[in-house]
Amino acid sequence: MERECPWKEKAMQIQAHEEDLATQQDSRGQASFTHGLICCFDKEKSSIRLDSVIEEVVYATTLNGVPYRDMTCSPWDVRELVIGGLFTSGRIDRFDQILNLEIDEEAGTVTVETTDDAGAAGLVVDRVLCPEASRDRPIEPMLTAQEVSERIEYLEGGSELFHRTGGVHSAVMVDREGELVAWFEDIGRHNALDKLAGWCVMNGADASDKILLFSGRVPREIIARAIRIGFPVVISPGAPTNLSIQLACEHGVTLIGFAKNGKFNVYTHTARIR
């Protein structure tokens, strides 16, 4: 008797998961991931199973008629990503400095035009603009130790796309009471934070009394973005670096790392944790 091909059987399961895909929609109203068949090994035993695979796209960006950069990113919230990238790099300082922004999904291109006076002054750190004014930020209590643990549990519990695919980072803005303000995800940790930055620029959001929950490691370029956006507190389950700790200390940012299971390390400006 001829044995039915396991790949064919699993392929039929893909069609059965269309409703499941529809429940995981991004800002485009489309599924955030695709289903694919993989050969999975558990020790020495193999099996064919259906897996959720995160999507990735590439956009070639032109700024004022000149090739600017190629962006590899998740295919949602691209407008926020572009605006946020221009803001964190210091190419713009306000939303009204963007004259035109066109995204062609089929061609994979982004065209941006800005005003002649676009840009901002400050110290450039790893291609990110850090404003000097943030060094004068007051250090006042904002969170209890219990609230820090609750915030990171909120991030962990809400990261459904990560749990499904293992392929995205999250950048989340919450207020002092822990209420969600904005949540952005991307395959790149820098992109996730740039998307959040873009949303803040587009909506005139003030981050000076908000908290950043960040899912990945916190090297210097991540802290530089948090400073540019204006966050006083950054909480992550990941590790900081010596340079990110130094930059956070200089700019008055409370940097919290290895936050998980009720434990965390405060590396700078502990006075914000009471």
From TrEMBL:
Keywords, in A-Z order: Cytoplasm, Molybdenum cofactor biosynthesis, Transferase
GO molecular function: sulfur carrier activity; sulfurtransferase activity
Pfam family, any one: FdhD-NarQ
Compartments where located: Cytoplasm
Assigned GO CC terms: cytoplasm
Family, per entry: Belongs to the FdhD family.
Record-given protein name: Sulfur carrier protein FdhD
Originating organism: Adlercreutzia mucosicola
Lineage of producing organism: Bacteria, Bacillati, Actinomycetota, Coriobacteriia, Eggerthellales
